[in-house]
Amino acid sequence: MGCAKFLQRQQAKNYQKSLARPTLQKVDGLSPEGLQRYSASTGGPVVIGCIPYRVCSSDGKLEVLVISSRKGHGKKFPKSDWMLDESMDEAARRSALWEAGLRGHTGPVLGSWLYKSRHYDDTCEVYMFPFHIADELEWWPEMASRKRTWATTQQVMDGYQHLWMREALERLVARYGKSYL
């Protein structure tokens, strides 16, 4: 099958998918299909994120991993756009792998929040998941532009300027018990 024929088939498949889901829009270059999910309530992108955590064997306290923003201003949890061709779980695992070099598994959703994105100049809807770390990779796709830092939940809560990120972390702590603080 020639390249032109393949592209025609892909475009037809993508068009059919967009008809089945009217809240989705085509955005070139964000995934192999170029399809990103959009919020029916805000019109902005839907973002999936996770809070990577581990329980310290020495004292049983919960630690979370934060990453630097690409420009190095502040810390954040891994998050990225939710693409049409993946589940929420897959999107959370992808963002943890690409942005922080982590492998693991997600737990039930912590909640959803709305936030104003500087990148999109739009209101995004974000869903956050707990992410229990199974493996911390030595090399990962965005390692040149992001630094990883382990911190206690209290250190992270004291340092975050975004209310929605603090609320997501509070829900994680509430789910796993105050003894982890």
From TrEMBL:
Alphabetized UniProt keyword annotations: Hydrolase, Magnesium, Metal-binding
InterPro entries: DDP-like_NUDIX, NUDIX_hydrolase-like_dom_sf, NUDIX_hydrolase_dom
Any one Gene Ontology cellular component term annotated for this protein: cytoplasm
Requisite cofactors: Mg(2+)
Gene Ontology molecular function: metal ion binding; pyrophosphatase activity
Superkingdom of origin: Eukaryota
Homology family: Belongs to the Nudix hydrolase family.
Protein name as it appears in the record: Nudix hydrolase 18, mitochondrial
